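Changelog entry

Holo records now carry the ligand SMILES as an explicit input line rather than a separate metadata file. Below, a converted record for 2-acetamido-2-deoxy-beta-D-glucopyranose, shown in the new format.
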Amino acid sequence: MAFNNYCSKLCMQYRHRRRRYFLLNLFVITLCLCAIFPFKYHIFQLSPSKPLPRNSSFSDLLRKEMTLNCTGDPLTTWCAAEMKYCNSSLLIYKNLFFLTRSAILQTIHAEGKRVGGEQIQAVLNQAENDEYFHFKKDFLQIPCNASLPRGITLQYHLSKILSSITSYQTSANADLIVNESTIAVNRHDYANIYHTMTDLYTAYILCRFFQRDPKSVRILFLDAHPHGNLDVYWSKLFHSYSRLGHLKKYSKILYHEIIWAQPQAQSDIDVQRHRKQTPSFFADFRQHMLKQFHADSTATRTVNCESLQIFYLGRRNYVAHPRNPSGKVTRQLPNEKQVLETLQKKFSGYSKLNFTYNYFEQLPIEEQLQTIARTDVFIGMHGAGLTYVTMLKPNRALVELSGPSWQSQDHFQQLAIINQVRYRQCAIQDESPTVAEKIFDCTKEKVLELCPSIMT
Ligand SMILES: *[C@@H]1O[C@H](CO)[C@@H](O)[C@H](O)[C@H]1NC(C)=O
Ligand SMILES: *[C@@H]1O[C@H](CO)[C@@H](O)[C@H](O)[C@H]1NC(C)=O
Ligand SMILES: *[C@@H]1O[C@H](CO)[C@@H](O)[C@H](O)[C@H]1NC(C)=O
Ligand SMILES: *[C@@H]1O[C@H](CO)[C@@H](O)[C@H](O)[C@H]1NC(C)=O
Ligand SMILES: *[C@@H]1O[C@H](CO)[C@@H](O)[C@H](O)[C@H]1NC(C)=O
Ligand SMILES: *[C@@H]1O[C@H](CO)[C@@H](O)[C@H](O)[C@H]1NC(C)=O
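Structure line, unchanged by the conversion:
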């Protein structure tokens, strides 16, 4: 097997040792299982292998190969729930995500209508289902002379991929070899900054967990979404991305390491986690992102009360999604222009306040992030754009404008908490003539919290 080429002598010794343990485990567990569940289960299902005793040269090798970083939550819990199968060619973490080594992707077994990356105008109104592949048996193969784990439940696409796994005998016929670490991501959405940010964070902490340099890690999109303006995030934060649909010209691809990332809904900063604390490496994630886009990546908590930057993010119609061909967005202030004029007038009475506004829909990402990174008080209508609260400096403030139907949602408050940003929900009635006054008052409250004497 070509895999053996990558294996030093040490590695071979390690395998023999593992094998002895494996056989011992196998024997003991078979005895137990046969007593309890005769013939019902595969051995592997219940026997995650134990850590092996190793001498220092083994540990040196493995440290180079793979030492997990278990700092903070959730990484501590991921480390604690590692399960190894098939000579560590398959490792599953907390039934959330998994890693394969020396795996072969057989692209023909990913069935789908689209390849992904199309221009949006070419695929308007296509069904969402057309933007995903169906992963059939043999899609993923690993060098494993044993039955694979059964009865493990992973979510969404990962369960399909896990159950597609079969064994291969030789990788000599692979027509592409990818030596670099790869993270496979099945994006839920690609045009929405909230979904993108949560997915980006997942891929980023997976890099930190496995101690891989994000800028050397390849991203593999398992979805077939059209091209989107946010795709550039993936090539900036990581080495580059490719689309599974575009790799179909290769029938067998040997990947030395693929990390199969958990789906968006299981991101640690997804609002369903109801996080009350900053997760592992979040500050590093923010810094990494801002650096890649040449924005101020410092994280100073001290606010400059001689010149406080207040930024209002407006909303505009924009075609970014095949299933919203008009590009019409909801939750716009009907009289936004007038509200902004009033706000500008009111804030201009204070020499130390610098009130500005902008629209992000068609602004280069670099400019978006540069704007956010210098903002002290961030104002915007409830909507995905407020996800940028995660890129503010800590100890800044978010004023979320919400109409009656959104007031019960705490999504952006959660994201503010994660980034240690102060939060204020500002309930407004769209048509009310006093909207500008209300926004001014909400903002003033946060301004005075940051700089108590700035408006006197
Ligand atoms: C580690 O184990 C290998 C093989 O068993 C042996 O050759 C080597 O001397 C050991 N190294 C140490 C530091 O014990
Ligand atoms: C994990 O990462 C932190 C921060 O980079 C570092 O200080 C720590 O030493 C790492 N832990 C391990 C086990 O490498
Ligand atoms: C583990 O590796 C050894 C040596 O390469 C091999 O004989 C054995 O079949 C492998 N075990 C599994 C479960 O693949
Ligand atoms: C495991 O390897 C042996 C010997 O190479 C072979 O006879 C057997 O069919 C293999 N089993 C599986 C499940 O691949
Ligand atoms: C992958 O690694 C092998 C051996 O280290 C090397 O021969 C091959 O050229 C590498 N492939 C790529 C695409 O770098
Ligand atoms: C006010 O904000 C704008 C836009 O961020 C910036 O260009 C300008 O320099 C700022 N003015 C002051 C006085 O900080």
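Spot-checked after migration. The CA atoms of residues 161 and 363 lie 37 Å apart. The chain has three domains: 2-36, 50-272, 293-450.
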